[in-house]
Amino acid sequence: MVKEKEKALKATAATPYINRELSWLAFNYRVLQEAKDKNVPLLERIKFMAIFSSNLDEYFKVRVATLKRLIKLKPKTRSKLDEEPQETLGQVLQEVHRQQEEFGQVYRDGILPALREHDIHMLTEHNLNPEQKEWITDYFKETLEPLLLPINLDETETHLFLRDQTVYLGVKMWEAAEADAKPERFAMLEIPTKKHGGRFIKLPTVDEQRYVMFIDDAIRFCLPLLFPKYKSFAAHAVKVSRDAELDIEEEVSGSLMAKIQKSLKKRETGYPARLLYDPETPQDLLDRMMAHTGITEEELVVGSKYHNFRDFFGFPDFNLPDLKYKPQPTLIHPELEKEPSIIAAMQKKDYLVHYPYQSFSYVLRLFEEAANDPKVTAMSATLYRVADKSKIAKALVKAAKNGKLVTVVVELKARFDEESNIYWAGKLQKAGANVIFGVPDLKVHSKIGLITRNEEGKLVNYAYLSTGNYNEATSKIYADHALFTSDKRLTKDVEQVFNFFIDRQTDKKFEHLLVAPINMRQSFIKFVDREIKNARKGLPASMTLKMNALQDTRMIKKLYQASQAGVKVKLLVRGICCLAPGIEGISENIEVRSIVDRYLEHARVYLFHNNGDEQLYVASADWMTRNLDRRVEVGFPLYQKDLVEQVRHIIDLQLQDDTKTRSVDNSYVKPAAATNVRAQYATYDYLRELVPQDMPPACKE
Questions:
Q1: Is 441 left (phi over 0), alpha (psi -120 to 50) or beta?
Q2: In total, how many domains does the chain have?
Q3: 72 and 191, same structural domain?
Q4: CA atoms of 83 and 22, how far apart (whole Å)
Q5: Rounded CA gap, 675 and 300, in Å?
Q6: Which among 467, 465, 438 is positioned nearest to 450, based on CA atoms?
């Protein structure tokens, strides 16, 4: 028994496993690659700079803060973790530093010169001409100065709380202009990005030369107006990222999880994860800011002159469409577009809508129609990340007011969307809906809806199942699949999922859906084992698996087993991938590809060869431990042949892509015979061709 245990430990130690944190950083580097790519339109490259920065901010708020907290655990508790957090944190900070160095280089040597080539000039406080100096001075007095509230950093121990993700200027001033002024003084002030309505100031265009400036630099230029008692100034930016929540789902489980949570309960919420600072900051100014904020050396991270590059989402476009992606007008669905009633259409057959290529309007129509249909008796939906002005939520409110039985599962733990979800939960409760705030110990991540209709005395169900959220805004940039169905095999199981939300009993039987944490993991293992069995019999065996993240160690080991048995495994993983492909004797039959492009690949598709009788599932779940064990997720089969063909075709295009596809080491995949396929553009063209010639392909939005 002991020998067997030792053997298992050795096997575990020998299993190649890419560190989850470093894999995420590798994904974010793919975003930076888009900002570097000169084939990407310039203003889109700037947007990718903003995405990279925003992603990194969130990463520090959640993952780095978590690592720092794990380091503070007692050694005995910490020894039970899979990896030493101190070592991981060191590797993370080293890679972050490398990427930020490159990020700065891309901005200075790539973006700024390219802007100048298009007659767009980023001005600083140092290169204003006399007319611009006068204009900025007037703008400062009229617009910026009323928004500023400088805080004196004197020698007392007063504590200054820096708001999360907000940029501040630390100011050192000396050379007093008045006799009563101290020889030197220190102050801080918040850069008023939100109050100003953005981070940038557009200056007057002269001779088709366009000028733009950070409000930071406008403030720097006007410091003598703000502090008239001094003649010399140094002003440097800082920004704090605070811990968003404890996120240790992947590191620990069960009793250890409870133990760690107990040991961390006493810690102050909003623990600072990092203070990003300008390396040119004078030491005495930095010391003064640290003394007043309580931030220590270990939270300091070297940044650059400017922080919060995510504010580049609001960079002015100067009405230059050639510097953006060519528009892809949202397509109609060729069948649903002709139907006056979505419910009546669903009585005939199933439909699959592919976002963002096709319009999100059909699900809005479905919910609005159901809310007003006197024959509809009940409506149910899971809300994970809803838009601020969600038409879906409004339709559910209307349905409740119309006397229908409305059940809404609202996930309050949807990170960074809690506020919007709480708002709509209150509105729904007020309207009379039955609002369920998730399930204890589980996060509800499934995206499903159910409509029950009284048809000639019989209750008939209609279901909506999707890989994406009920969110009008993200449906324009997230690539997802959504199924409209009245197939009793599926609607019966969807009804069972909502019963689970109500009674929380896990004894539910699902004949067709894969539901985490009830039967999803077991089903996926069964499907992989079947391919292994077929390969060992000498039968064709393969899998094509598309997901956002692959982190679960058990599923990775199962894929290694499949590879060793001769199963051909093709993985499309947009983000984290802890599996190491192409290792002889372990994973030589596994290929990993990742696509980062114009839209965010968000759909999950699981395709199993099954000895020629292919099985295809579309799902909300990745192969992460949290998705399979600690979230309510739903995977659904496609039974209608034409819908299977659509998804199969889209996946095939992604496997052929040699324009935006990277391998696991972030090198671009360049086959010997170039295909010149760009999957997202080819998908758009494919779906456009499905629209009959006598119909206008673009929807009216």
A1: left
A2: 3
A3: yes
A4: 13
A5: 47
A6: 465
Q: Is 574 annotated as a binding residue?
A: yes
For the chain, give the mean pLDDT.
90
Task: Collapse the DSSP code of 232 into the 3-class scheme (helix H, G, I; strand E, B; otherwise coil) and give the result.
Answer: strand
Torsion 277-279-280-283 (CA) sign: positive
Active site residues: 445
Neighbouring C-alpha atoms within 13 Å toward the C-beta of 238: 28
- 349 and 238 share one domain: no
Task: Return phi, psi of residue 483, to 5°.
Answer: -105, 130
pTM: 0.90
Q: Is position 602 annotated in a ligand binding site?
A: yes
d(CA 631, CA 257) in angstroms, rounded, equals 16
> 222 with 143, same domain?
yes
Task: List the one residue out of 662, 683, 689 whose CA is nearest residue 599.
Answer: 683
Which tokens go with 147? 């928004």
Look up the domain containing 456 and give its range.
Answer: 336-507
Residues 331 and 81: their CA atoms lie apart, in Å, by 49
- 415 is known to lie in a ligand binding site: yes
Return the amino acid letter for 7.
Answer: K
CA dist 449 and 396 (Å) reads 11
Question: Helix or strand or coil: residue 97?
Answer: helix
Is residue 478 part of an annotated ligand binding site?
yes
How large is the C-alpha radius of gyration of the chain? 28
The percent of residues above 90 in pLDDT, for the chain, comes to 74
pLDDT tens-digit map of 410-420: 876 645 455 66
Q: Is 277 annotated as ligand-binding?
A: no
